[in-house]
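ESCALATION

Customer reports they have been waiting on this structure for their group meeting. Please prioritize. Original submission:
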Amino acid sequence: MIAGLILFSEATVAQIFFYKNSEKIFFVFAGIFGTVLEMIGGIIGIWTYTYPNLITVPFWIFFCWGFTFMLLNSAYSLVKNRLNKQG
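Update from on-call: job pushed to the front of the queue and completed.
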């Protein structure tokens, strides 16, 4: 529960101060996409969570997926920019 509140607070601050509108949309899409996949995995029985809040997943999983996709997107952009400078 505390981890979820920390992630929620961090996401809120990042969304307000650091992300552009396109990144905010990407964060929400990624969070929804990842959460739905986690729910499907939980319903099928691939994995379970000890204390799920939403159908089969904890509520903080949305933020984890959103941040993960944002991290991967940033890493991709960084590598792409570095390769373009070299070539």
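Sent to customer with the following note: Helices lie at 2-17, 21-44, 61-86.
Escalation resolved.
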